[in-house]
Amino acid sequence: MLITFGLLGLSICAVWLPSLQVGKKSSISPWLLLFIGAIAAGFLAGYLSWQAIIELGVLGIAAYFAGRSEATRAQRIVLGTVTAVLALALAMHRLPGFHNPLLIAHMKFSADAAPFTQYANFDKAAVGLILLAFLCHRARSVSDWKEVLWRTAPIAVLTAVSTIAVAIALGYVRPDLKLSSYTPIFLVTNLLFTCVAEEAFFRGFLQDRLAKALNPIRFGEQVAILCSGLLFGIAHAGGGSRYMLFATLAGFGYAYSYSRVRRIVGPIIVHFT
User: Fold this and answer.
1) pLDDT tens digits along 210-234
2) Do residues 210 and 203 touch, judged by C-beta distance below 8 A?
3) What is the pLDDT of residues 13-32, one digit of tens each?
4) Which residues, other chains included, contact 262 with Cβ-Cβ below 8 Å and sequence gap of 6+?
5) Are the C-beta atoms of residues 203 and 264 closer than 8 Å to each other?
6) Which pairing describes strands 26-28 and 20-22: parallel, antiparallel, or unpaired?
7) Is the Cβ–Cβ distance between 117 and 105 less than 8 Å?
């Protein structure tokens, strides 16, 4: 498990690295090499079947061609739709072939807390990686990173404080500060396998395309932010009405941060915060 998901996590981080030269005219991306290694390790360990590998391959091909500048408008619409449907189905664990390992089951971190369960989800993390690599705008220079961090920091603080404050005010959570032995695993897994995947889909893919489509319309950017936040909240409806409210509130913060920086790392930072 450590090899499989370690390689998968490294492949997500490697998306920001430049391609490696192979000969004089060819190059290959480091993230792709690591991703192939993760798939091979996952297959040998029994976490993935051939069916899962085919599903990821189809998603990768659709996303790659949907993001090419040479694609016609019709091709972008068709391939974008295929990408969205496959990405959503994989992220929601609706497609067979994946046997995601259980990290922690029904753990109560406080005496009166709801039990917590977490899986290492290869399918959802792979969706984030593929969308990140082929369809998301990324920070590519030191100046890019500085601008993103400068503009994102206040949004991250405001989003976190307001969401938690509303959750406390409505009695959904209460403060019980602690650092458990599971905290590092939760943080790494949440960042790489949840924040990246959800922001790549809802912001880097959906919001970016919606904003471009609505660009000629007055307040088109604001409508894209509103739709992005609402869709994110609806996606969390399974947790109940109050949980959907908190997800929507947070989603507005993530969406606004993306509109400010147009780099996917912005909403990832806000989400992780």
Assistant:
1) 999 998 888 899 999 999 999 999 9
2) no
3) 999 998 888 877 788 899 99
4) 137, 208
5) yes
6) antiparallel
7) yes
